[in-house]
Amino acid sequence: MRRRRLPEFTNNHERWLISYADFITLLFAFFVVMYSTSAVNKGNFRVLSDSIVRALGLPGLAFDTARPGDTGNQAIPTGVPSQRGEPIRVPLLAAANDAEVRESAEEPMSEQLRNVQGNLQSSLGDLLNEEQLQLAPDSKWLEIKIPANLLFPSGSRALLADAEPMIGRLAELLRAVPNDIVVQGHTDDQPIRNGLFPSNWELSTARAAAIVRVLEQEGIASQRLSAQGYAATRPVAVNDTEEGRAENRRVVLLVRDLIGGADDALGAGG
Q: Superfamily assignment of 108-267 in CATH?
């Protein structure tokens, strides 16, 4: 029988065009997506920013978004027209913070929080007179400030023996109320020089957690407790002197108001 001859396959040197065409198509699609995401609808942005300003009742800033290379740092007061069109107003962060402070100062402290403050003052009068504790009331929380040198050795998270009775007295009073408690740790700006903690962030957080652990052991429900560490980011005095650094090294207990204050207490801790 005659043997069937297999077809010969020739090497196609033009196959690279298929891969090249696919690459060009993907590259074109990439730039189309990049352009579409970079194009800002100024009308929608203006509506959004104006709605925020009206809702908060705050003054705003006008930014000329048509100016090339403008990062928003060059601002003019709201209502001053831009040379390149109507300005877009955005809320001013500093004004928002000032408004929150004014609102907090104008709002009266709740009756329940006043009762907590009164109980602490009457039961811890000796500690308050000796300035071992400081109370700072607010409309949305009650701040209890304790100097760190009364609680911990330098650069350590281990509680001093004399500190445990103080924390126990606080826990006994706070156990009787339903308010949530935020424990904040603060340090000065001096770099920590030991092998226990790589920075003041870990030290401040560990100290706050140590206080939370004692409060929990004293019978306060863990659901009511939280720990935060701020290192040296929220000083209450200058760090140029030893007195100022000692004042910045502190632990703050924030007793939140039952109504509101859940998010506001995150920014407290002076």
A: OmpA-like domain (3.30.1330.60)
